[in-house]
Amino acid sequence: MVIVDYGTGNLNSVKRALDRMGARSIVSSHREDIIAANKIIFPGVGHFGKAMSKLAELDLDDTLHEAVLIRQKPILGICLGMQLMTKRGEEGNIPGLGWLDGETIQFDISDARKYKIPHMGWNQIRVTKNSLRA
Length: 134
Description:
- By secondary structure, this protein is of the alpha/beta class.
- The chain has helices at about 10-20, 30-35, 50-55, 60-70, 80-85, and strands at about 1-5, 25-30, 40, 75, 85-90, 95, 100-105.
- Helices cover about 30% and strands about 15% of the residues.
- The mean pLDDT is about 90.
C-alpha cells in the first residue's frame, strides 16, 4: 500500500495509523511505487489549486490516472485528496482529476460565528428517529 506524497497534509499520521493496524505501507511520490502498489491512499490538506499544481509538477496526475483508471487500483481519498478527484475546484478555479462527476465548492455559510469552517473537533448527536431495520 502506498500513501501518496505530493507535499500536502500530515502523511505520517496516516502512516502511523496503518502501522498500528499492522498494515504494511510506504509514503512515496515515486511513480514506480504508486504503480506497483496494491492499494493507494491519497491524503491532503490545503488549497485545491496549489495541490493540483503540485501533482502536475511531480507528474503524479498522470501516474495516478494510470494506476487508478487503467490498472484499476483501489484508492482512498482523504480530505483534499478526495476533493481532488472531482472535475473542478472552486478554490483556484482549476480542473481536478475528473474521476468524480462533481465540483468541489466552498460552503456558503451565512452565520460564520455559529458554523465554523473548517469544522474540527467533537460534537454531540441527538437521534430523532431510529432508522435501523431489524
